[in-house]
Design brief:
single chain, alpha/beta, Aspartate Aminotransferase, domain 1, Aspartate Aminotransferase, domain 2, 2 domains, 4-stranded antiparallel sheet, 14 helices, about 15% strand, globular
């Protein structure tokens, strides 16, 4: 039997990068002493009022079909939340509810680009961007980063534009770097989009988890609202990864097309999850603030523990729950470093080379464990690296 060529377009090395994480979870399930730093699944509990809302909705029989684009009250609440965070008013018709940010990104890609189009994506990029673009038949064009900071290289981005360029996909704050794009960087992207009539798909999942730099939504810049697709989610900000609750803010005609695609794929998000999401959006501010401060403390723990090791270089994140660590000074390729670290210490990290060549010298570690576990994981990493140095001597 033969499969569609789509199956080839959505697989690849970026997907295979998760193998070490799957191995770590299997070891943990067997009761082994494992600390999983290879995924961004918050260890915080979903806030109690959010859970209670879902339970109450289930008991009330909220298990039937819902509007494809989301319930009007949730779309209105998300529009108000967008206005609060960005200062830019949008109508509920500009919002579509989706099954997490990944589903929103996939749907947007299928509605925006097609075979023959090119999509510019700054590196390092999130692992599944490539599959989303290639599933639509378009070509992903990676754009290299500043090698010292892994921030956007605006000159390289401008040079990558061709007559076939249709869109720019970007994440700010970024996964895996934790970089928050500056006003100058955002304006450089916006200038290209306006001059070349490009779409911008802005992944802002970590917008509520910034530490050192204010997040600015690119849609708020002049001339950008009508060409920007903003992706967001409750997964990381409200510790709701398993709920699959996300949304997209975009021009109303694009939202209409995305709703048609959602009709064929999901036929609407479950009502009880939408009721929980409504409470999260309207009442979750204090919980988000507490999580943000928790991640800030964890970032500082990791930095304090690892940045003094001569063969490691930590790239200080400005947001989110991840940090990149350049391990090239150890003399080990990143994939070998990650697997040896896991097998010898029980700590799993991700080979960041999967996010693109710009991060090929790095591994990514997550702050989605308790402060105590993170401190212990950093001690194990330090011992492992020190052991490598002794062997080298």
């Amino acid at each position: 039997m033969r499969f569609s060529t789509l199956t080839d377009r959505i697989r690849g090395d970026r997907v295979a990068a998760w193998d070490i994480h799957f191995a770590a979870w299997a070891a943990k399930a067997r009761g082994e002493d494992v600390i999983v730093l290879s995924v961004g699944d918050p260890d915080f509990d979903t806030p109690e009022p959010v859970r209670d809302a879902a339970i109450a909705a289930l008991h009330a029989g909220d298990t039937h079909y819902t509007p494809i684009a989301g319930r009007p009250e949730l779309r209105a609440a998300l529009a108000r939340d967008h206005a609060r965070r960005t200062g830019m008013d949008v109508a509920p018709e500009n919002v579509i509810v989706c099954a997490g940010a990944q589903n929103g990104l996939f749907n947007a890609a299928q509605c925006l680009v097609e075979a023959g189009d090119e999509v510019l994506v700054p590196e390092p990029m999130y692992l599944t961007y490539e599959a989303c673009v290639r599933a639509a038949g378009a070509t992903l064009v990676p754009v290299g980063a500043d090698p010292a900071t892994l921030r956007l290289d605006t000159t390289a981005l401008a040079a990558a534009v061709t007559p076939r360029t249709k869109a720019i996909f970007l994440a700010t704050p970024a996964n895996p770097t934790g970089v928050v794009m500056s006003p100058a960087e955002l304006e450089a992207v916006a200038d290209l989009a306006r001059r070349h009539d490009l779409w911008v798909v802005a992944d802002e999942v970590y917008a509520s988890l910034t530490f050192d730099r204010e997040h600015i939504s690119i849609a708020t810049l002049p001339g950008m609202a009508e060409r920007t697709v903003t992706i967001n989610s409750l997964s990381k900000s409200h510790a709701m990864t398993g709920w699959r609750a996300g949304w997209v803010v975009a021009p109303a005609d694009l939202v209409s097309h995305m709703a048609t695609l959602a009709l064929c794929m999901l036929y609407g998000m479950p009502g009880f999850i939408q009721q929980a999401a409504l409470v999260a959006v309207e009442q979750g501010g204090p919980a988000v603030a507490a999580m943000r401060e928790g991640y800030r403390r964890r970032r500082d723990i990791a930095l304090e523990s690892l940045q003094g090791i001569p063969t490691l270089r930590c790239l200080k994140p400005e947001a989110g729950m991840f940090m990149l660590v350049d391990v090239s000074g150890t003399g080990l390729p990143t994939m070998e470093f990650a697997w040896r670290l896991f097998r010898e210490t029980g700590v799993s990290v991700l080979d960041a080379g999967a996010f693109g060549p710009a991060a090929a010298a790095c591994v990514r570690l997550s702050f989605a464990v308790s402060e105590e576990q993170l401190a212990e994981a950093c001690r194990r990493i330090a011992r492992f690296v020190t052991g490598l140095e002794r062997v080298a001597l």
